[in-house]
Amino acid sequence: MIPLLPTLDPEALLAGPRGRRLCLEIAGMAAQAASTDPDRSDFGTARFYASYTLDPGRGQSVKMVGPGTDAELPAPSPEEVAALLDTVPLPELTEDGLLAALTATVDHARYWQEPDGDDVLAASAPMRKALDRFARALADSPLAQWWSAPMDTAAQWTVLLVDDPPRPPAEPKTADQALGQWRAAVIAEERRAGSDRPSDPTANFSGTWWSRPPSDLATSTCALVGHGPLGLHLVEDRFNEEEAVAHKLRVPDGARILEVNSPSDWAQLCREHPLDVTASRRHDWYRATGRMGAWVLPDWSALRDKYDGVHLTVGGYLATAGVAVPVDGERSSVLAGWDPDATFWFRATGVEEESRQAWARVHDDPQWSLQGSAPRSLTVPARSGWSLNHAGYEAWSDTVRLGAGEHLWQRVRRDVLSWKVKTRSGFTVDTPGPVAEGQQVKVTAHFLGTKVVEPVEVVAVVDETDRAGFAYRTLPGHPVSGEEAFIVHRFGDEVHLTIRSLTRPAPQQPWRALFPVLLAVQKKVRGRYLRALR
Description:
- The chain is α+β, with helices and mostly antiparallel strands.
- The chain contains 14 helices and 21 strands.
- It has helices at 10-15, 17-34, 42-54, 78-85, 95-107, 117-123, 125-140, 175-196, 263-272, 278-289, 314-320, 406-416, 420-423, 515-531; strands at residues 157-162, 219-220, 223-224, 228-229, 243-250, 257-260, 274-276, 294-298, 309-312, 325-326, 331-333, 343-345, 350-360, 369-370, 394-404, 428-429, 440-447, 450-463, 467-474, 480-491, 494-505.
- The strands form 5 sheets. Strands 15-21-20-19-18-17-16 form a 7-stranded antiparallel sheet. A 4-stranded antiparallel sheet has the order 1-5-13-14, with no helix packed on it. A 4-stranded mixed sheet has the order 2-12-9-6.
- The protein is globular and about 85 Å long.
- It starts with 9 loop residues before the first helix and ends with a helix.
- The model has no long low-confidence stretch (mean pLDDT 90).
């Protein structure tokens, strides 16, 4: 007989703050889809005001600004919000929708302060009752059946999120080194906390709050078709990285994986291998759970001889993360800082180099895009923020105000996307029509009394309501090597032009020897750029 795989338990989902939050996110999406107004729903509006009222950090987690916010705001009760939710039809669950709801659920996890207003609202008795049918629909969905399944050994991917600016690479460690150093650090911190930190858990103090295995260990997740590895999307306490590299993991033959699929699994781990962390965790975990008492976490170093890795299922995360899980009569524990479906490896693993994937996303956009073999723009015209820290390049950026008004905006938007910054600065372009990503163009410049042909390729185009522009990189034969971006953008009624540039010497002569002269010419040309759209 084929053993049945564990399935999601609706009651367990609603018993955990992350599970409740997921159901609330799904309910919000369903209400929006059912509303006749694409920008609001009655349930969504009531949820917003109720969450604001219930938020312990009101004015910090959510701020109310704009006309009318100085007046008394609506304060619907959980009963009233639940009554509105009862009128919302169940949604048609899709993989895209579930991933978006999961991402929002993970992004709002916090274990160092009180639950936010949405979590408080979802935990109320009326809302838990109203969310029950959403939890049951989720548990019955074929799309969520794998959420409680053991780790898929055939489809594990590692993800390296790239910081901007890049951080120095950490010194590589073996799994034994990482686990040994982690244990020593936890014990040392606990000893210091016992003498240096207040014993009152309600004291205004914060420190280490996570309980996952050490971050120096290799980690992996499964991947979803069309979305890539879950390690791109489901990341607690992320830093909004916008680039990542993924590889398929070579899972060791016969890998022994410990599965964490429920609060009872977590409690058993803590009972078998407890590590006392009361002094170092009491303040954060009290604020997160409201519990006072002794705390432990699993001693991960004690598992390395028995297991090759430990896997937290998505279902285990939803039911367990953020819960004060009883371990015995005196001690409890909190699963914190561990991403859904992540496996931490206690032994060395390898990757399939040929499987390498580059992923990128625009700032604050949750959608990741597979980059393939296309060149990645270094000046990222779609991003409002940009770092000048690019090793090996002369980096420069400047912004000027062009004026104000809709008519001006429409004109400069058309002009910037038709190479007008270049052509009005004395250059000619062999394809002066609207730019297109991947387009290769020959720009001709007049330099020292001669015509110089500059081959370039458009690597990024942005054309949005309040932002338009493009970036191009130089091709072989160009006098310099690098990238430039021309961007127009508006804030309210004000219209601005931003120029970004990365420059380094071209590999060929005589241009390489002339690089200092070219920099001086470039400085003069930039002045023309900034005046080109006035």
